[in-house]
C-alpha cells in the first residue's frame, strides 16, 4: 500500500478517495478501523473516522488505531485528511492528532495543506480563503458544530498543536519541488514541527505533491492528495482507473432518497432549488428531540409513500444561519445530535424497505447515515461533482452520494439523477 489515509469524517473520506482515483491510484474506502485480519488490495486505503467534532483524546485514540492498522500493512505514507475549511471545534483536534501521528511515526516535521482550488479553497501566505473570502468571513463562521472564526492556519495550528508552525510561501512553491523540500528542511532545522503550504492552483498542488511524496506523514485536504497521486502514478493510468470506477461504483437502480443535514450556504441553495421540483418534507428539530425513534419511523413511512418514478423525495433539516442560531439558543448541541439520530433511524428503515440510493448532504450527517446502514467499505465510483463520487457499499447492494456541505453546484441533487423528470414536467 502506497498511501494510507486517516480521514476525520465520511464526506471527507469519499472526497479524498475520489481524488486519489482521479490521480491514478487504485483506492478503497473503509468505514471505521477495519478488523485486524481484513484483506484489502489497493494502492491507497482511506479509513473513514467520525472524529471531527470529538474531544481530542478520542480523536487521537481513533487515529492511532487507524495508524496501527495501516502500518501493519506496510503503508508507505500516512495522510491525515481534514476539511478543506480546516473544520475544528474550539478545542480543535487536528493539532493533537497531528502531534500524536508525528510522534508515533517518529517523524520530525509534517505539512499542513487544506488547499483545494477546484472548489475555491486556496492558501495564500498561510491564510485560508473560501472563494474570494477569508475563511472567517465565509459561511463557515456559522457552522452548527465547527464555526471557523480565524483564517490564519499558522495561528490555528499553533493554538491546537504542541509543535511550532512555519510557512512555505507561494513564492517558494513557484520555484518548484526542490525549493519546497529545502524550505521544509530549513523550517525543521529552526525547530518547527509543522509547515503550512501555500497553494492557489492545481499547478501548485503538482509541485507540492512531488515535493512531499516521500514524507512519512502529510496532512491536509484532497487537493494535496491529488497532487501526490499524480506524482506517484505519473497520471499514466488515470483514464483506465476512471473507467474502472465508472463500472465498479456506478449508482444502482432502484428507489432513492435525499437526506440533507448540512446547514452550509451551498446546501441551503441546493435544497431551495430541489424543493421546488421534488417531494420535500421538513424535519422538525422539536420532534427529533422528543422521540427520535418514532419520528424517524414516521419520516421513513413518508418517504416510502412518495411516487417512485420521479425525483427522489427530500428530507431536510437544513436551516438558514438565522434559524440555526434560534434553534441553538433554545437547545444547544443537543439539537444537532437529535437530528443525526433521526436520520440514522430513517436510513436504517429505508434500507430495510428496499431503498438502494442514498444522496446525503453533510459530513456528520453522512457519518450517521453510513453507520446506520452498517456498511463496511466502499468501491469508489464516478464523480458527480469535484470531491463527490458515487460510492457503492462492498457488503450490501447500496449506492451513496456523500456530499460535503459546501460542495456541488446548486443543481447537485438533480445532477445525481440525470434524466429523471420533476413533478412539474408532466411526467
Ligand atoms: N435544523 C437544525 N438544527 C440544528 N442542527 C442541525 C439542523 N440541521 C442540521 N443540523 C446538524 O448540523 C450538523 C451539520 O453538520 P454536517 O452534517 O457535517 O454538515 P456540513 O457538511 O455542512 O458540515 C449535523 O450535526 C446536523 O445534524
Ligand atoms: O475537504 C473538504 O472540504 C471535504 O472533504 C470535507 O472534509 C467535508 O466536510 P463537511 O463539509 O463537513 O461535509
List the helices and strands and how they pair.
Blueprint: E1 3-7, H1 10-22, E2 27-31, E3 44-48, H2 56-72, E4 77-81, H3 94-105, E5 110-113, E6 121-124, E7 127-130, E8 133-134, H4 153-160, E9 164-168, H5 170-173, H6 177-189, E10 192-197, H7 202-212, E11 217-220, H8 222-233, H9 238-248, E12 256-260, H10 265-275, E13 280-282, H11 285-290, H12 292-304, E14 314-316, H13 321-331, H14 334-352, E15 357-361, H15 363-372, E16 377-385, E17 388-393, E18 399-403, H16 412-415
Parallel strand pairs: 1-3, 1-4, 2-3, 4-11, 5-10, 5-11, 9-10, 12-14, 12-15, 13-14, 15-18
Antiparallel strand pairs: 2-16, 6-7, 7-8, 16-17, 17-18
Helix pairs in contact: 1-8, 2-3, 6-7, 7-8, 12-14, 14-15
The structure holds adenosine-5'-diphosphate and ligand LB5GJZVW.
Keywords:
3-stranded antiparallel beta sheet, 16 helices, 427 residues, binds adenosine-5'-diphosphate, Molybdenum Cofactor Biosythetic Enzyme, Chain A, 2 domains, alpha/beta, binds ligand LB5GJZVW, Rossmann fold, 15-stranded mixed beta sheet
Your description of this structure?
By secondary structure, this protein is α/β, with parallel strands linked by helices. Helix content is 41%, strand content 20%. The protein has a 15-stranded mixed β-sheet with strand order 9-10-5-11-4-1-3-2-16-17-18-15-12-14-13, sandwiched between helices. Helix 12 packs across helix 14 (334-352). The radius of gyration is 21 Å and the shape is globular. The termini are far apart. The mean pLDDT is 95. Bound molecules: adenosine-5'-diphosphate (ADP) and ligand LB5GJZVW.
Amino acid at each position: 500500500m502506497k498511501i494510507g489515509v486517516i480521514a476525520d469524517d465520511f464526506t471527507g473520506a469519499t472526497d479524498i478517495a475520489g481524488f486519489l482515483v482521479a490521480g491514478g491510484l487504485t483506492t478503497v474506502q473503509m468505514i471505521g478501523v477495519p478488523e485486524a485480519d481484513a484483506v484489502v488490495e489497493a494502492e491507497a486505503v482511506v479509513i473513514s473516522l467520525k472524529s471531527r467534532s470529538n474531544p481530542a483524546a478520542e480523536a487521537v485514540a481513533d487515529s492511532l488505531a487507524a495508524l496501527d492498522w495501516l502500518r501493519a500493512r506496510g503503508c508507505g505514507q500516512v495522510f491525515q485528511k481534514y476539511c478543506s475549511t480546516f473544520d475544528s471545534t474550539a478545542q480543535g483536534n487536528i493539532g493533537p492528532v497531528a502531534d500524536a501521528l508525528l510522534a508515533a511515526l517518529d517523524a520530525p516535521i509534517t505539512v499542513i495543506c487544506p488547499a483545494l482550488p477546484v472548489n475555491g479553497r486556496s492558501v495564500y501566505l498561510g491564510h485560508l480563503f473560501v472563494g474570494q473570502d477569508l475563511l472567517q468571513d465565509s459561511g463557515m463562521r456559522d457552522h452548527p458544530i465547527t464555526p471557523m472564526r480565524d483564517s490564519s492556519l499558522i495561528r490555528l495550528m499553533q493554538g491546537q498543536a504542541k509543535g511550532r508552525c512555519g510557512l512555505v510561501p507561494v513564492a517558494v512553491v513557484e520555484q518548484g519541488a526542490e525549493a519546497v523540500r529545502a524550505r521544509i528542511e530549513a523550517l525543521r532545522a529552526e525547530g518547527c514541527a509543522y509547515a503550512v503550504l501555500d497553494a492557489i492552483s492545481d499547478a501548485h498542488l503538482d509541485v507540492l505533491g512531488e515535493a512531499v511524496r516521500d514524507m512519512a506523514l502529510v496532512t491536509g485536504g484532497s487537493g494535496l492528495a491529488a497532487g501526490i497521486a499524480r506524482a506517484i502514478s505519473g497520471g499514466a493510468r488515470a483514464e483506465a482507473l476512471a473507467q474502472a470506477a465508472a463500472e465498479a461504483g456506478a449508482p444502482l437502480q432502484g428507489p432513492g432518497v435525499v437526506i440533507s443535514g448540512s446547514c452550509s450556504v451551498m446546501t441551503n441553495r441546493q435544497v431551495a432549488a430541489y424543493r421546488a421540483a421534488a417531494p420535500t418534507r421538513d424535519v422538525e428539530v422539536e420532534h427529533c428531540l422528543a422521540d427520535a425513534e418514532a419520528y424517524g419511523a414516521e419520516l421513513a413511512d413518508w418517504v416510502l409513500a412518495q411516487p417512485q418514478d420521479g425525483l427522489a423525495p427530500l428530507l431536510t433539516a437544513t436551516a438558514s444561519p438565522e434559524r440555526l442560531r434560534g434553534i441553538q439558543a433554545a437547545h444547544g448541541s443537543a439539537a444537532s445530535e437529535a437530528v443525526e439520530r433521526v436520520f440514522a433511524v430513517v436510513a436504517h428503515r429505508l434500507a430495510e424497505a428496499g431503498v438502494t440510493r442514498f444522496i446525503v448532504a453533510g459530513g456528520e450527517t453522512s457519518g450517521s447515515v453510513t453507520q446506520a446502514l452498517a456498511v463496511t467499505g466502499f468501491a469508489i465510483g464516478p464523480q458527480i461533482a469535484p470531491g463527490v463520487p458515487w460510492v457503492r457499499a462492498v457488503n450490501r447492494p447500496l449506492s451513496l452520494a456523500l456530499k460535503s456541505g459546501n460542495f456541488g453546484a446548486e443543481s447537485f441533487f438533480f445532477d445525481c439523477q440525470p434524466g429523471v423528470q420533476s413533478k412539474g414536467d408532466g411526467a
